[in-house]
Structures are given as C-alpha cells and as structure tokens.
Design brief:
Elements (H helix, E strand, L loop, with lengths): L1 H7 L20 E5 L2 E5 L11 E4 L5 E4 L5 E7 L4 H18 L3 E8 L3 H11 L5 E4 L3 H7 L9 E5 L5 E7 L3 H13 L1
Parallel strand pairs: 5-6, 6-7
Antiparallel strand pairs: 1-2, 2-9, 3-4, 5-8, 8-9
GO biological process, one term: cytochrome complex assembly
Keywords: Cytochrome c-type biogenesis, Disulfide bond, Redox-active center, Signal-anchor, Transmembrane
Subcellular location: Cell envelope
Length: about 180
C-alpha cells in the first residue's frame, strides 16, 4: 500500500527517503466539508515539524514554517481544475490570514514554470509559490501525512507540525475555520 502511495505522487525517490515509515502516520479525525475532506490532528498526534527552504517563482526566499502564529501550505497545480476553481477565493482568504500572522505558501506540484506563472498572473496570487519540480517538498510532506492529490491544504501549528489536512476543493470559510481551530485550539 505504501509503495502505491509513493508511485501515485510520482516521487520514486521516496523509496530511499522513508516511504516505509508512513505506516506510523497519525490518522486524526476526518469530516467532509463541502467538496473536501478535512482531517484534524490533536496536539499529541502531530508528528515532527515540517521544515523546508526554497526560492519562490518570484525570487522570494520561502521557509516553512514561517508564520508567527501558523503557516498554511497549499499544494496545487495549474493544470488542476479544482485548484483553478478555488484560487481566487483562497487567495482572498490568504490576504486576510496574513493580517493575523498566518503565512500562506503555495507549492506547485507536477507543473512547469510557465504553467505556474500563468496561474499566478490569471488569479492574482500574491502569496509565495514554490515550483516543486523535483518532488522534494512532496516527499518531505508525505513523510508526515498522507497526501491525497491536489488540491491539498496543510495547516501548520506554531511549531510547524501538521494540525489539519484538507484534501479537495477549498473555500475561504473552510480554510479560515481550519486555521482558527489550530490557532485557538
């Protein structure tokens, strides 16, 4: 089963980076919200902190975790219809969250620089976006939680641990509720 997960995300290099360890990932509590599935993890269920540094497509240095209160990581692809459908609303929510000390980082998966640039321009994305063309960030995240395709949203707590995972099309209300649950919880 874990081998299938590794191949499904196109990250064959994960064989050497801990794919067999996925059996120990916490499952959390899941619920269906709109067109998405949300899983929350209690503080004691959260694994090790997510840590990565990269250069965004606009040249900004990006580090996760980065927000003083928390960080949201949005995994998407310019080729993904649900990602395009949520982009404007999620971008508006990202601006509101920034005012609360929550940083939002986009991670474009299985994409091209031209595709990402077009997506960013078309939808007015102003949060930093990293093109994960080598799959390194996906592998790192998949060692901490099950990734269910794109769009996937991860809400990190103050320590950088995954506190909430949302798989599927996201709306602003769901994102803001998920973040509030982590920040207030």
């Amino acid at each position: 089963m874990t081998a299938i997960l590794c191949l499904a995300f196109g990250v064959a290099s994960s064989w050497a980076t801990g794919c067999s360890e996925r059996a120990e990932i916490a499952t959390g509590r899941s619920s269906v919200v709109g067109e998405a599935s949300m899983t929350t993890f209690e503080a004691g269920e959260r694994g090790s902190p997510v840590e990565f540094s990269a250069v965004a497509v606009d040249g900004r240095e990006v580090t996760a975790p980065s927000g003083s209160v928390g960080t949201v990581i949005l995994l998407w692809g310019s080729w993904c219809a649900p990602c395009r459908a949520e982009a404007t609303e999620v971008g508006d929510a990202a601006r509101r969250l920034a005012d609360e000390g929550i940083d939002v980082i986009g991670v474009a998966v299985r994409d091209t620089a031209a595709g990402v640039d077009g997506f960013v321009e078309r939808f007015g994305v102003d949060y930093p976006v990293v093109l994960d063309d080598d799959g390194r960030i996906q592998v790192d995240l998949a060692e901490r939680t099950v990734l269910g395709g794109v769009p996937t949203t991860l809400v990190l707590d103050r320590e950088g641990r995954i506190a909430c995972r949302i798989v599927g099309r996201l709306d602003a209300r769901t994102l803001e509720t998920a973040v509030a649950g982590v920040v207030d919880g």
